[in-house]
Amino acid sequence: MSPFKAPRESLGVLDAETAAALIEGAADIAVIVDESGVVSDLAFGSDDLLSDFSADWIGQPWIATALPESRANLELLLKEANHQGATRWRQISHTSLHGVGIPIQYRALRLSEGGPIMAMGRSLQGMAALQQQLVDAQQALERDYWRFRQVETRYRLLFRMVSEAILIIDAPTQRVVEANPAAGQLLGETPTRVIGRPFPEGFDPESTQAINGLLAGVRAAGRADDVRARLIDSMQEFLVSASLLRQENVSFLLVRLSPLLTDSASTAMPEAKARYLRVLENAPDCMVITDADGRILTANITFLNLAELATEQQARGESLERWLGRPGVDLNVLMANLRQHTTVRLFATTLRGEYGSTTEVEISAAAVRNGERPYFGFFIRDVGRRLHAEPSISPEQTRWLDQLTDRVGRVPLKELVRESTDTIERLCIEAALKLTGDNRASAAELLGLSRQSLYVKIDRYGIAADHTSEPTPDTQVKTG
């Protein structure tokens, strides 16, 4: 606070009436309190406060006019005025004639030693009204936010449950923003892998041109006639419709794909396919379909039981390698042979369940081309309870054992062990080459060797002469 430099010269001409007029004009409310805390005089500079408060304050203790929660603050104001003469601003709330608390900001001044105290107040009703409006606006925003969240939840649930394939596409770039599960199933991909890819993709050239024309018409005019489209290498035909959707100055295209049934296929084909799918679903052998990366697109009940899974959703999108016996080896060998031969037969391995069970299985697989996106079908058979015949011993193995026995006592044990190790290593390499169809890269993975190390060992043992021919579909290396 900065006081006047010469108050006697500047304000010495003021009398009591002039000072009262200045106080009444400067303050919304002015209260004179005697030394015992009783209101001796009262003035209102605001008509609003005059209508809100009663003149009965005069003769009452000033503390009795304040709300209970403000009385402690009022006592501090009076105490500070008695000790220091002038006080800082303090907020005190009074009860109005309408029963509403009105906040007043006071500053008090002791007029003389042991004399009365004058308190000048400013009404904070305007600020309180603004604060209340702010609180109301915040609560309205909160209600709108939760209402929008509920609407979004209902939309996403409906979007996922609807049986028709629906795509939301960014209009300028024609890339998929959202796709429901039905769209992913129709396009042969999981919905997460469809997002971000250009549309249309995977359709034949004529259908691609028709869909592009449809989307251009919708962007220009807001609507266009539906078109027919067909996926590459598929006889299934779709009716493609689109509509324009604007959101926050951004344009999206809502695309719907509806399967069409031809007259010849409308009766016989759906029923035949339905029977075929029901047989695969309930087959005693596991049936798994994966994408080109080995991630599961669908699996039947037998596989779920063997892998100890409750629902197909737990397997969908996961790599088949997660349940195979040799991680990093089995699936790579299978994929390499499928890409080279398109079929694999009787690949022996194990299948691990989610809770630690292990089952011996045989895997046969086939690769199916679907345009640029092939997918693989795996038939997995439980052979754990099959009666195995005793493994046959080849003449070469018998001759080697006889020679080893005859040399005992004539050749040091150290040399016998070294020769035995070389022979066993050679037999393992030959078995791996036989298992993988002479695919040296897959055999190296199966043996846990680098390709260079395998090539060196093949040359060292002279195996190259026995395995130089390219594998054929009829070899006994479990490729078809």
Automatic annotation (TrEMBL):
<dbReference type="GO" id="GO:0006355">
    <property type="term" value="P:regulation of DNA-templated transcription"/>
</dbReference>
<dbReference type="InterPro" id="IPR052155">
    <property type="entry name" value="Biofilm_reg_signaling"/>
</dbReference>
<dbReference type="InterPro" id="IPR013767">
    <property type="entry name" value="PAS_fold"/>
</dbReference>
<dbReference type="InterPro" id="IPR000014">
    <property type="entry name" value="PAS"/>
</dbReference>
<dbReference type="InterPro" id="IPR009057">
    <property type="entry name" value="Homeodomain-like_sf"/>
</dbReference>
<dbReference type="InterPro" id="IPR035965">
    <property type="entry name" value="PAS-like_dom_sf"/>
</dbReference>
<dbReference type="Pfam" id="PF02954">
    <property type="entry name" value="HTH_8"/>
</dbReference>
<dbReference type="InterPro" id="IPR011785">
    <property type="entry name" value="Tscrpt_reg_PpsR-CrtJ"/>
</dbReference>
<dbReference type="Pfam" id="PF13188">
    <property type="entry name" value="PAS_8"/>
</dbReference>
<protein>
    <submittedName>
        <fullName>Transcriptional regulator PpsR</fullName>
    </submittedName>
</protein>
<feature type="domain" description="PAS">
    <location>
        <begin position="151"/>
        <end position="222"/>
    </location>
</feature>
<dbReference type="InterPro" id="IPR002197">
    <property type="entry name" value="HTH_Fis"/>
</dbReference>
<dbReference type="GO" id="GO:0043565">
    <property type="term" value="F:sequence-specific DNA binding"/>
</dbReference>
<dbReference type="Pfam" id="PF00989">
    <property type="entry name" value="PAS"/>
</dbReference>
